[in-house]
Structures are given as structure tokens and as C-alpha cells.
What does this fold into?
Amino acid sequence: MKHRFIAKEHWKEQSTAMAASDVIAASFDDCINLSIGDPDMVTNQGIIDAAFEDASKGYTGYPNFQGDPELRTEIRNFYKRAYDMDVSDKEVLITASGTSAMFMIMKTILDPGDEVILQGPYFSPYPQQVRMNGGVPVELPTLEEEDFQVNPERLESLITERTKAIVINSPSNPTGNCLTVETMEKIIAIAEKYDLVIVSDEIYTSFSFQAPFVSIGTLPGARERSIIINSFSKNFIMCGWRLGNIIAPDFIIKTLLSVSQGVMFTAPSISQRGAIYALRHMEEIVPPIVEEFKKRMYYAAERVNGLRNMHVIFPPKGSFYLWVNIKDTGLTSVEAQELILKEAHVLMLPGVAFGNCGEGFLRIACTVGVDKFKEAFDRIEKIDMFNPNL
It folds into this structure.
């Protein structure tokens, strides 16, 4: 929007494909929306009850700026229990979502003109978050034929004297891939060589299907230069509660705390009380959620691989997204998305929304049940381009 009341940096449209998806979906009464990672499940009733019981007890004011002390303790306990990772209280900050965490991290670490290497395909808001804080996003392509692992030679070739940080995401949104320990060790070695910050987006920690999740913070050489983002949105189906956390060296947390007071002041108090219950009852809450998403992922992947001109790596490795290769169609990802929406009333996201290296792919969010998926793929296979019987 070009207007003298709006800063010139915003005159060029910067909204993401995800931001427009709701409007697109609403244009069809029967649209099956597979675009946004907002599950169709309701937050565990125990979490809801605990949060509102504490609200009734008076937990409705500003909480501690660093985060509710009980929640910080539970997060530290989680990292010790899950990864045998010792985290001090000074290394934890509670945030209003993982997205705001990334924004505040970029505000904290970047000087104007600093470059940030983004593991691509990437969560689509990343480049905008870098630019809004004076940085320059640099895409690091990962490739299907390389199992979407970060190629260390390609990574090193992108480093310049202005490079400040590397952003990695595993399990990945959008590819669903999980970085191997070997890959992460090579990333750490490069970061040490060039004295770079590693920002690790780990919000899909529970959704690692083929091997146990490994946090980069557990690997040698990483802790002193790593900033880890986690969130309650996906693991606990708490998207609307807007709650995340950052694990980082204490001097970074101290600066982040100052930044956060100018951005969010504090994370929501009631959400934090719910999160305390969530972590204390994680063993009973999370496994059924993960099992349901795994069932959806496997069903959807099998249906994709049964269509013409589409395929996806099988079995799915992580997150709850499928990264569908549609290169055999000869269409761009936007053209393929529009064809499926027009002919089948099924909405996916075009791969190019996740970086240039996402061209030739579509992202499917497995946020609907198997019955709804069956309806979606029954519609899609009637399109000549994808009909397996033609």
C-alpha cells in the first residue's frame, strides 16, 4: 500500500502466501483447506481447565518479564528429561509465539546490512523478519536428491564478511525433513570457523517419526553460539494460545529481554499457566497427537504417490507437512496450486512461497482427518493431469 502515512519500506506488498490463504479458501463453500499448519484438533481439556482455574485464582496480571518462574522451571526440566541438556534459568525467555521469538532474535543480533543464511525451503515469514530488522536474507537451497540435508560446501560458499547467522529448521516446515546429527555437526563446524550464530527453529520436536529428535544444543560446540526456538503451538495443539520460548546463552537472553519489553512486554499470563500443565502432563497429552498426525501423513503420502505427476518422499520423516514434487506436470507451483483449487476446490500452498528452491513443489498441511483427506484426494485424482488411470 503506497501512502504517505506508511513507511516506504512497506509500500511494496510483503504479505505471504499463508496470509492470503484464508481469503482464497473462503471463495469456495466446499473448499478443503490444506494450506495452514493450524490443526483441526482442540487443545487438551486439562490444559484449558488448568489455565482458566488459575485465571480464576488471579493469574490475570502481568507475569514476570522473563516468563512465569514455574514455567521456566518446567521448560528446564523438559530439556533435561528429553535431551539430558542442562539449561540455567538465565538461559530461558518465554515469548508470545515462536514467530515473535524469531522476530526478536533478529532484532537482537542484527546490525544494518548483516546477512542471514536461511535453510531453504524455509518458513515463509523468515525473510521478512530479517529485512524488517535491517538484515539481508540469503537463501541456502536444500535439494530432494540430497534428502533436503544442508550441503556444507553450498553453505560455506554463501558466507561473506557480512554473514552474521545461519537459520536452520528441523523437523522442517515445509519439507518435513529432519537434519541428521552428522549434518548438524558440519553446520556447527562452519559456524565455529566463521564465528556465526546458529538460530535453530525446533518447534516440531515431537514430530520426528524415523529417529528420536536431537536438539542442536546437545552437540559439542553449539551451546555458546546457538539460539533455540520452541513453541507450544504444534506439540500441544496450542496455536491460538500464542506461546513459545527461547533457549540461548545468558547474555543473549539479557538483551532479548530488553527487546521483548518493546515488542510484547510479556507473554500472556493465562497461556503460560496452561503451558505449565501441558509440560507436567506431556507424556499423556503428546503421544496421541503425534500418532494421529503420523496416521494422516502416511495416508496422504500414499495417496499422493498414487497420483500421476506427483510424488513425495516416503515414509514421511517429520513435522506434519508433505512436500509434494509436481515437476513432472510442467507447471509452476502457483499454476499447479491454482489448477487444484479451481478443479478440486482443495487449497495447498505453492512451493515458491517458501523460497526459490521451493519451485516445483506444493506443501500440504496434514491438519484434517483421514476422511477429509480421502475426499480431497478423490477430487484431485479426477483432474486429468493427476488421474492415475489416464
User: Anything to note?
Assistant: The radius of gyration is 21 Å. The mean pLDDT is 95. The chain is about 40% helix and 15% strand. The first strand starts at residue 32 and ends at 33.
